[in-house]
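Quick one - inputs below.
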Amino acid sequence: MNLRAPILLLALANSAAHGAQAAEPSAADLTQLSLEQLLDVRVYTASRFSQKGSDAPSSVSVITAADIKTYGYRTLADILRSVRGMYVTYDRVYDYIGVRGFARPGDYNSRALVMVDGYRINDPVYDTGSIGSELVLDVDLIERVEIVRGPSSSVYGSNAFFGVVNVITKSAQDLNGAEISAEAASYGTWKARASFGHRFAGGLEAVVSATGFDSRGPSLAFPEFDDPATGNGVTRGTDYERRSSVFAKFSYAGLTLEAGHSSRNKGVPTGYTGTVFNDARNRIVDTQTFTSLGYYRTTDSGAELSGRLYYGRYEYAGDYLYDAPPVTLNKDLALGEWWGAEVKLVKTVFRNHKLVMGGDFQKNRHQDQTNFDQAPFASYLDDRRSSRRTGLYAQDEYALRDDWLLNAGLRYDTYSTIGGAFNPRFALIHKMSQSTVVKLLYGTAFRAPNAYESFYAYPGQQIGNPALRPEKIKTWEAVLERYLPGNWRLTAAGYSYKVDGLISQVPVADPASGGVLLQYQNLGNVNARGVEFEAEHSSRSGARLRASFTAQVARDDAGARLSNSPKHLAKLNYSTPLFGDRLRAGVELQYTGRRITTFGETGGFLMTNLTLLGERLKPGLELSASIYNLFDRKYADPVAFDVGVPQRDTIRQDGRSFRFKLTYRF
Amino acid sequence: MTRPMASVRLPVIACALLWAAWAGAPAYGADPAPSEYALKAAFIYNFAKFTEWPPVPGEGAREPIVLCAFAGEPYDAALASIDGKSVQGRTLRVRRGLRPIEIKSCHVAFIAASEQRRIPELLRAAAKAPVLTVGDSDGFAEGGGMIGLINADNRVQFEINNDAAQRANLKIGSQLLRLARLVKER
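Output:
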């Protein structure tokens, strides 16, 4: 497999190159195309250099609502998995982002900033940017997702360490009426959604949506529990998931009020942390709420002014059954509650300087963690905190000449807990010709240790580390983007990351029991280097192709490779219309290379997903059928070291599964 | 065992890919992808193709279809290349540099985003006359224009305000309505 993916890409690049001999479409040539084909033609010239949606002069991928339908994506995790250089790890409760070779077991997505319409969803206890089914937003409401690789701390501050995932929701016009949708999938899974979007005569735009989801979940086998006392390691009815979410967005005259709420009840089937195996009472409930009031205005002089006030709340409630004996219910709880404000001004001065200035403030009212046995009552942790942070930043985009652009930014953050940090970023962007762009990027980023890493403690499992320092990263990156005739885009990127004091979960001796405890500590330096290649193509026939290959290596001080860091990743997404334009088929191939685990290695695997979409069978009706893991590949993801199940270092993932979906618009 | 292999393989692949990308280079400075302007011109051509104008006494079937462009210099080449094309058996003629009052003499009026300030004036001048108004500024169709071209996801889409077209006795073809985003006037 290692060889196959690069050869495929090479073939693609070559066929792109040979396309050069073909005549270029002018307006006159384009008149030969049908309207359907015209709607599918990509244009580059006008928008190529406009930094749509993202302030980051970096390597950006965009996944649209059309991709979500075409490839049958169910979660944000599915979306990220399909993108160049990214991979996702699942432990049957949460999904974890892997980017640029980093996916530290025991890290709760704290190194990627996840935003919904610019509102940051990373909570102040775990810093989690949810990407799994617990995401506060239904994936069907996504208009597009912009994935920015590399650090963006010079604009966004903490968490923008390896990248930023910006989710943009559908507008009232995108929905333009009512929509109901129903899904049925393997493992007794059902989902229903009702959405409505309308632009009223007075200019008010409204979007409201509600979703319900229920899944029985598969039966699972865990070899580490293969013992007659624990049902030979087989568990049924413990991987269930129930969730509901609501979302609303109202815009009027530059003001946008947005709110979302979701609650997910997920069974924990894995015997995680030594809980009683095969007991459906082991579960985790994640509840998230947010409200954001945004303001956007362009002044007569052409300046853009925007601001936002927001409130967020995240509640985690874990029920863990331990056989003390007797079997005791342990409650592991966390509450994050925060509010904040931000302002931003974009202004062009002296014609060739585009200035971006802004500031933000966030007050974390609650960063509370508690743990206790219910009956008989025994408290193990009651840690209540609050904190605040303030950030100020400025960025100048300086057009040195028509074909040279310099982007320099600096941000200062100050935390009530860890003090201040400066983060610069420089980017030099050169348009070598109409079809070739080169970017040279340098940036730094930091991440403050979160409340969980610093203060969570539970006897026999984990101890806190109030002495944790922020982790820091320095990155260099070069990106070459090339547009070739016939709607081809090729991207090549090379990067070198140097992380100082990477916060990692490490086993330490437990003086009380003589056993092992987990603690978060700052590791020494970690270096990561890699190259990425991507080819994208959209043809006149309506077929679309995206293929990428990533090779990377991340090593610590001692030269050892990091765990859960595949050396190779390859992706292929291809979709094409069938039977005229009645159906669209989407094929997705994802190869993830071998990954090091706590005790060994988990094998590479090729995942194949297939979706058939019928958008134009009947007016208003949309049908889709998907098969995930078509060839029923057996594979496992590395998981964090678990004191309660010390022999386990991987968790098996789902085999072949199906989904049918029906959406009706009226 | 695999390590030395991999370390050799990668740079080779990288070089090969870069070579492949460079080898296909078009002449320096030539623009390989269709420009936004060319694409929009092709759309306008299609709009003219699928619109029915009310019969005008004295206007023969041989008379040209007049496309008036209220647009800046970037559109020059794109519009010039559709000038003279055949539409519904008639010839498409592009006219530029008209005064707003002359808009009534056009079959199609294209008002580019660069002329945003003049949009209300032009739409007023065209009111009720059978002139298909096409624009590419934000909210053009909702603001009283008939067809708005919009940039979305590096592609060009269009929205239709059919009420405005009907008021002007224009019949926009189902080929267009089917693919458009339909909008109501604000």
